[in-house]
Amino acid sequence: PGKKVLIVYAHQEPKSFNGSLLKIAVEELTKQGCIVTVSDLYAMQFEPRATRNDIVGHLHNSEVFNYSVETWEAYKTGALSKDLVEEQKKVQEADLLIFQFPLFWFNMPAILKGWMDRVLVQGFAYDLSKAYDGGLLQDKLSLFSFTTGGTQETYSNKGINGDIRYVLWPIQHGIMHFCGVKVLEPHICYAPEHASEEKRKEMLTAWTQRLKTLWKEEPIDCSPEWYFK
């Protein structure tokens, strides 16, 4: 009870299957006494592009623009744009980050990738001397909950798409673990668009059930072996 959860949601349609997964998470976690915040990126018209607009005021080096250097300097002096500061505050306060999205081209949608690019700046989420287990966002949990177009068989190591874990390596390991965030087992709903109504209901029920015992789960072993064994 009293845990804070941030759900970063990337889908255009509230009536979608992803929308249903979001609704369940908000209801179930609120019922548990959690304080749930949702960043609905499409509804917010979140800007995914990392540009000099992310820095308010003077640039550290106005001759040559280097985004990572400029945002790092701006973070230290409180000169990041308002939308970034708001998202960073939500991340800072959260015990758990849930990312809810449909898989696009073996990756997260551009709007969500843009959120990662812009919000998780150096100084806030990581420092080059403090990454992975030393990352700056330790003591937080994350969970990637997403839908696929392909079936589970196509995402097995013998399937045409290869093991789904390969897809998770850059997002779970390269972003979350890099920033020090512990990673829970992903929640994957395979091909809901092509499933029967009954199967879709089963998927939603499974998500509800998982959320009931979420806080008892142990994070995955964040090592290359988990992804490439």
UniProtKB/TrEMBL annotation:
It is an enzyme of class 1 (oxidoreductase). It is found in: Cytoplasm. GO terms for cellular component: cytosol. Keywords: Cytoplasm, FAD, Flavoprotein, Metal-binding, Oxidoreductase, Phosphoprotein, Zinc. One of its GO terms (molecular function) is NAD(P)H dehydrogenase (quinone) activity. Its cofactor is FAD; Zn(2+). The keyword Flavoprotein applies. Its EC number is 1.10.5.1. It catalyses: 1-(beta-D-ribofuranosyl)-1,4-dihydronicotinamide + a quinone + H(+) = beta-nicotinamide D-riboside + a quinol. Residues 3-211 form the Flavodoxin-like fold domain. Gene3D superfamilies: 3.40.50.360. InterPro entries: Flavodoxin_fold, Flavoprotein-like_sf, NAD(P)H_dehydrogenase_qn. Homodimer. PANTHER family: NAD P H OXIDOREDUCTASE-RELATED, RIBOSYLDIHYDRONICOTINAMIDE DEHYDROGENASE [QUINONE]. The enzyme apparently serves as a quinone reductase in connection with conjugation reactions of hydroquinones involved in detoxification pathways as well as in biosynthetic processes such as the vitamin K-dependent gamma-carboxylation of glutamate residues in prothrombin synthesis. Belongs to the NAD(P)H dehydrogenase (quinone) family. This is Ribosyldihydronicotinamide dehydrogenase [quinone]. It comes from Eulacestoma nigropectus. The lineage of its organism: Eukaryota, Metazoa, Chordata, Craniata, Vertebrata. The gene is Nqo2.
